[in-house]
Amino acid sequence: MTIEDLQELCRQLPGVTESIKWEHDLCFCVAEKMFLVVGLDKTPVSASFKVTAEEFEVLCQRPGFSPAPYMARHKWVALDNLNRLQPQEWEQRVRESYRLVSGKLPKKVRKELGLEA
After folding, report:
1. What is the average pLDDT value for the chain, to the nearest integer?
2. Rounded distance, CA 34 to CA 98, Å?
3. What is the SS3 assignment for 19?
4. Across the strands, what pairs with 48?
5. Measuring CA to CA, which residue among 89, 91, 107, 113 is closest to residue 30?
6. Other CB atoms closer than 10 Å to residue 18's CB: what's the count?
7. Is 69 helix (H, G, I), strand (E, B) or coil?
8. Is Transit peptide a UniProt keyword of this protein (predicted)?
9. Is-contact 85 62, C-beta < 8 A?
10. Residue 74 DSSP label
């Protein structure tokens, strides 16, 4: 998985924006709320994303995963190398993180993004 692959995947989701934060992190957001952060300053490239409470404990036991600094209390995990996940798992994780974050947005915002009828 490359950064470009993740960008293409994220751009398919409604209302996604991307920006560089903290000088070296590519952040994908929905309504200004982050759902995926890719560390551009390390080799191999790392990433962090939101997961469910149940997944958090399981993923943190897997090689290469750890609680994300500053965000673990919100059930974010950090992955030390993008290539630890296959493309189909990346798609699942990105979509789930997006769903978890966008689901917490106000109903009006979700409606504006086309996430609610």
Report:
1. 94
2. 8
3. strand
4. 37, 78
5. 113
6. 15
7. coil
8. no
9. no
10. G
Contacts of 34 (CB under 8 A, 6+ apart): 27, 28, 101
* DSSP states along 20-62: EETTTEEEEEETTEEEEEEESSSSS-EEEEE--HHHHHHHTTS
Q: Check: CB of residue 31 under 8 Å from CB of residue 109.
A: yes
Q: Give burial (CB, 10 Å; 0-12/13-18/19+) of 95.
A: middle
The pLDDT tens digits of the residues spanning 44-98 come to 999 999 999 999 999 999 999 999 999 999 999 999 999 999 999 999 999 999 9
Distance, CA of 99 to CA of 83 (rounded, Å): 23
pLDDT over 90 at 42, yes or no: no
The residue type at 106: P
> In residues, how long is the chain?
117
Q: Which two tokens stand for residue 74?
A: 């919100």
Say which amino acid occupies 43. T
